[in-house]
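Morning!

As promised:
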Amino acid sequence: MSDVSNSDAALRLSAVGKNYGRIRALDGLDLVVPSGSVFGLVGPNGAGKTTTFSIACGWLRADQGTVDLLNGGAFDAVRHRGRVTALPQDSALGRDMTVVEQLTYLGRLQGLGAKATRSEVERILTLVKLTDRAGDRVRTLSHGMLRRVGIGQAFLGNPELVLLDEPTNGLDPRQAHSIREFVAAQRGTRTIVISSHNLHEIETVCDHVALIDRGRVVMAGPISTVTGRNGEVRIALGDGPVPLEETRMALSGDAVEWDQVARVLTLRFIEKPGRAAEDVTGSALRALLAGGARISSVSRGQSLERKYLDLPAGRPPPLPGDRTET
Amino acid sequence: MFGPTPLRDIGLVAAFELREMRRSRRAVAVLALYLLAAAFFAYLFVSVLERVQEASKNPVAFLANARNEQPGRPGARRGGPVFAPAPPDKPSQGILTSRGSPFNVLIFSQVAEPEARDFLEKQSPIVLFFTLTSFIFVPLLIMITAAETVAQEHQSRGARFVAMRTGRAEFAIGKTLGQGALLGVVTLLSGVAGLAIAAWKLSDFSWDSGLESLLIFWPRVAAYSLPFLGVAAFCSMNSASAMSARVFSLLGLTALWLAHHAAGLYTGSAFEPFFNALDFLTPYAHQDDLWRASWSAVGPQVMLLTGLALGYVCVGLLFYRRRDL
């Protein structure tokens, strides 16, 4: 993470600490979000994801450390207006205003002119598929629709950095899929940071990820690096022969591990020019097939979920009366 | 056409606040509360006026009735020093509700300054009553109705959407101005409601003089309300929920009242300068001058009250800028 230079970082938090009474919510958290990435923030409940978001957005004050957004220092409504937007978790829009009125208000506050706001609101309503509910009061919308309005407001104008806190929380699978598609379609246009419990979602949508636990980043980097996609191949075999020695000979220098119970062969290697994961996989498969092995499946790296579950567990139980996360 | 400026943002927030209050019927609830209070007190007052009017038109019958109703009570002397009965063939015109009425003369005879006395004697009594009751009750109503405006946004965390787009000062001031605009309209309509009650109950009521007096005194009521709105904004900015903001603001109102009255308790003591200075920082200390005639006397008080309102809001903002949303 630290190899991302200052000018390449859309968001940088350095040694950020935050306490809620006796609870240390963030404990010297360091986080660098590369510019232009779709960045996933993953962690258990109470890990500090929402606190990290809130400090980045200026809603909460950090007790220690520094925050820098778009090389403009900590969040400032004047400096970052229209450039940084967010979907807060569990925040309610004005219930008695219509969707159009609410979006128009936020667009105007963001600095857009009246005409620009009108066209922006139309664009956003189309993007989040709410044109038919534009004139309805916010209070009449379902939870999923409210979430879409919330996400839509974060994409008003042309923000350079968008922070989405649990964007698909509480949505049914179809709505969640629709929102993932929407976010994925934004890739390359701006930096997006998503916090989520849904590891599959993060793996699908994001290209970078940070795993947070107990107020610290415990692992971070490109998804492919974190999951080992470019350094690990797993081959599941069916019943039958296991030509282990032939495979090791074909992959001389690379680690080959055999899990007898799961019947999974794990190959660990370092990618080099002219020797990519595809080449290693090809060599291994040729050796296995020549030895009469029956291939069940081939996968690259571990899933993010596996990686997450492999992290040291044992979060201490909360103290009586403590908040877990804000 | 215009880029984002603090004033533009304040205007946007205030306009949205007003629209939201209208849409949520909160404005209707506030209006109903003020109008009901105004109508109730106006009715009570006008009923008293009506009785006095009846007595002034026919004091003999009135006093006879009074004696019949209360046989043990000694009768009032006919034609007292203030209430001179009109001749039977020439009933009094506007004796109670028009300018220069004997009622006003009675009420304001104790006012020491001749200029102020003359001025008040010429005003519509119902408007003076509206002003007096507004001075007493509007601060309380402001704390009940206006203190929740920003705090509600903290409670729902809706403030976070806005905080990404404008400064906290613009947000809080805009919300407060929205409340102020609503209160301005509502207090004016309350005054009109009082006049309507008077027109309904009193035969000699004059709309012209009533409205003229209302236009003189309503701006004073509005100016007097400003610092209380500032206190409500202070409490609202620094509360996590609507309920805590209401409680906090009522405590604030009590603190202002105590600060004002403490000055009277410590007259002549070593603490007098301190309590006088404290009193000066409360709106109560500037109320008396709002009854004067000339704008040269009223104007500085209006400016002081506006300054106090700004002061309360600014101190609130000092805390609000640093608090977690």
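Chain B has a mean pLDDT of 83.

Hope this helps with the figure draft.
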